[in-house]
Amino acid sequence: MKNETAVAFTGVTRHFGPVRAVDGIDLTIRRGETVALLGRNGAGKSTTIGLLLGLDEPDGGEVRLFDDTPARAVAAGRTGAMLQDGRPVPRVTVRELVTFVARTYPEPLPVAEALALAGLTELAGRRVDRLSGGQVQRVRFAVALAGNPELIVLDEPTAALDVEAREAFWDSMRGYARRGNTVLFSTHYLEEADAHADRIVVIDSGRVLADGTGEELKRAAGGSLVAFDLAGGPSEGLDLLPGVTSLEIRGDRARLHTDDSDATVRALAERDAIRGLEVAPVSLNDAFLTLTARAPGAHTRPLETTR
Ligand SMILES: Nc1ncnc2c1ncn2[C@@H]1O[C@H](COP(=O)(O)OP(=O)(O)OP(=O)(O)O)[C@@H](O)[C@H]1O
């Protein structure tokens, strides 16, 4: 039977002196999934990606790509990558560059197809050093696709792109994913992770804090936010109301995180504490902050590992 696992991290660690850049990561990505690696600066995303691509070796644990070593999977063209480095662009045309790279792989994608997937057909004859930032990023995407990889790894692919270029980029990425391929991308942008990934893996301090869909993450971080005016009333006991997971008082306004907003609102109504009542689902932004705020030093259990 065909192995359904594209990426497998088992107990992977990578320390740089006292810095635990990757601190015991277990992660499995199935073929065909689009996964976002979400974390703030220094969370360990790039180190994780470097280990995944065999650019660096773990101190402990094991990384497997398609049940093989990362180095062999990359050399065979099964994995393509777009990393953060800003190499100077050569004075060749887009088509020449992609053709050159494609020839280094055993079973490359036809160049016209790589160009089309990256949205570069019209720009194929243009010199690479005469392109805009967004266009250069698409060239880098085409280069990553050249070997016809089953898995593509993108380290903050849309950093420094404007909204339009970003949308164009994600369109290309989805086109590639729709062919049944696997995508792993890292980002600081919560909205991007939610909009473009089937699954979000939140990492902080080199550990997986949460793993699930955007919806699951929001639920795990406390499903809804219920806010109301205290209007001089007491705040004691609010944190003990049904469903409430945390309480925050800002001036005269109370904000309750709850995983059962109906029960919380009923209890507030009984206390006659519903002035200026507002009930909203937790935004992914709030969920992310809640998750990472729990992080410092603590060995937080992954909140949702359902696969
Ligand atoms: N070669 C290295 N030598 C020493 N420390 C390193 C090295 N590479 C990474 N680190 C440290 O490991 C931690 C994780 O870094 P990493 O680059 O993986 O984070 P990141 O999540 O990719 O951050 P960013 O979003 O800023 O790119 C950081 O504290 C970083 O300073």
Automatic annotation (TrEMBL):
Gene3D superfamilies: P-loop containing nucleotide triphosphate hydrolases
Keywords: Antibiotic resistance, ATP-binding, Nucleotide-binding, Transport
Record membrane topology: Peripheral membrane protein
Domain ABC transporter, first and last residues per copy: 7-230
InterPro entries in alphabetical order: AAA+_ATPase, ABC_transporter-like_ATP-bd, ABC_transporter_ATP-binding, P-loop_NTPase
SMART domains: AAA (SM00382)
UniProt-listed PROSITE patterns: ABC_TRANSPORTER_2 (PS50893)
Example GO molecular function: ATP binding
Localization (cell): Cell membrane
Principal location listed in the UniProt entry: membrane
Name of protein: ABC transporter ATP-binding protein
Organism of derivation: Streptomyces tanashiensis
